[in-house]
Amino acid sequence: MFAVDAVSKSVDQIIQHKIDQKTKPVGALGELESLAKTIARVQFSANAETKKLTIKEPGLLVFAADHGIAQYGVSIAPSEVTSQMVANFANGGAAINVFCRQMGLNLEIIDAGVLKPLGLENVTEHRLGNGTSAIHLAPAMTLEHVKQGFEAADEVVERHALSGCNVLALGEMGIGNTSAAAAIMAALLELDVHKCVGRGTGVNDKSFELKKALVNEALKRHGSKIVSPVHALAYVGGYEIVQMTGAILAATQRKMLVLVDGFISSVAALVAVKLHPAARDYLIFTHVSEEQGHQLLLEYLQAKPLLSLGLRLGEGTGAALAFPLVQAAVNFYNDMASFDGAGINNLA
Questions:
Q1: Gyration radius (Cα) of the chain, Å
Q2: Catalytic site residues (predicted)?
Q3: From CA 348, how far away is CA 346, in angstroms rounded?
Q4: Tell me: the pLDDT tens digits for 123-162?
Q5: Which DSSP letter does residue 134 get?
């Protein structure tokens, strides 16, 4: 249902020349220069008449859902914490609320399928069910659920696009979702489970071994049926991962920049890129988390994250914290003087 165009590389030389002519030694702003180039490519592709880079109505979407596997001891917290945290988001008390207020990001919380409907005024309801089935015992969901999730995400992104938004950040909340994410990663990249499964919120050794065993069991049960990225979502995924994948494809189809948070968001990005490789051009990976699978995943996606802060919270917190770097890249590209303009000899 999505069509994603690759960004145009035809203006690369113009972009690089503009960056190199700023009043600094070539490359002196390091990764900020690469970030500016990524942003410029996307925005030049969206509008060939672009003269200045822009950030308009930036939004951060947090998708929340529960996972059947969480009932089997793979997390330090029970599934009920997902709903409790969604209520905390709605009341403005979580880390992501604090950071979004600080960074000027428009926060939207989406209930993609927590255990019970919450009926909270500040939460968008796009529920696909009351949590997924336990993936080591049954398929997480149906293919129809995946389709419905993509459609729901498209509706959310469309609303933000109509408000003028051209930058979206993604986050999630869901007890047990690192198990689902690891299973998707192992299935799509044909990796050993032990390389993909991490400790999530910090399980002890016994729970860690159980988590690896259950994810491995899930892949043995469903592996032969996972014949596409969509099947990976249906058999071992999560409702929030489905809708994050849909949001990435919906945003990149509209030529919006997407700020990817940690491990779960990056797995959604992996699925999106597997479905539409051109989507990779629009993605900015904001941080590397403590999950061992995340580091391998970033390598596969050829992504150099902006931050390394030891984060393992989720919620989109890494994306929010990296947002000022995106602003800085835009501002230096737009406003920093050139050698000619400032009357300074070129340092090259």
A1: 20
A2: 315
A3: 6
A4: 999 999 999 999 999 999 999 999 999 999 999 999 999 9
A5: P
pTM of the model: 0.96
Angle CA 81–88–65, to nearest 5: 45
Half-sphere exposure of 40 (CA within 13 A, CB side): 25
For the chain, what are the domain ranges? 59-324
The model's pLDDT over 72-127, given as tens digits with 9 standing for 90+, comes to 999 999 999 999 999 999 999 999 999 999 999 999 999 999 999 999 999 999 99
Q: Class of 59-324 per CATH?
A: alpha beta
If you average pLDDT over every residue of the chain, what do you get? Answer: 95
Cα 260 to Cα 246: distance, rounded to the nearest angstrom? 13
Tally of residues, the chain: 348
Residue 220, classed as helix, strand or coil, is: helix
* Bridge partners, residue 109, by sequence: 62, 123
Question: What is the Cβ-side half-sphere exposure of residue 235, based on CA atoms within 13 angstroms?
Answer: 25
pLDDT tens track for 284-317: 999 999 888 999 999 999 999 999 999 999 999 9
CA distance readout (Å), 284 to 177, 224, 279 = 22, 33, 11
* Contact status, residue 237 vs residue 150, Cβ threshold 8 Å: no
What's the rounded Cα separation, in Å, for the pair 270 and 231? Answer: 14
For this structure, is 315 an active site residue? yes
| CB-based contacts of 182, cutoff 8 Å, min separation 6 | 193, 196, 197, 198, 215, 267, 293
| HSE-CB for 66 with a 13 A CA cutoff | 24
Contacts of 208 (CB under 8 A, 6+ apart): 197, 199
| CA atoms of 95 and 105, how far apart (whole Å) | 13
150, with CB counted inside 10 A (0-12, 13-18, 19+), is: buried
